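Researcher: Structure for this, please.
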Amino acid sequence: MEPLSPDDDTAADGAVAPQNSPSSFSLEASGSKYLLREAISEKSGTLINGVNINNIRYADDTVILAESEKQLQAMLDRIVDKCKEYGMEINAKKTKTMYIEGIQKRSR
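Model: Predicted structure, token format:
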């Protein structure tokens, strides 16, 4: 496959966009949305102001939200499996996890 030039902002079929190019951003941003939709159930996640949220994306970063460690691990396992289906992998060296426990839910 021939890489796109850094100033090319369109992707041809089978082309590989260099990391940090405008093309890699648009491919990442659009691709991750669909991959996450396929991998994560709408029922997964946590309620924030009455809305179930299971992921937050900004540029090429993604935050996965869950109610428990067990749910988070199950979500990550599904994401890893879905990435493999598309020939992608998560860079474990750039991946961080945080579990916050003991947060009280307030009722209004």
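Researcher: Any notable elements?
Model: The helical segments are 22-39, 69-85. The radius of gyration is 17 Å.
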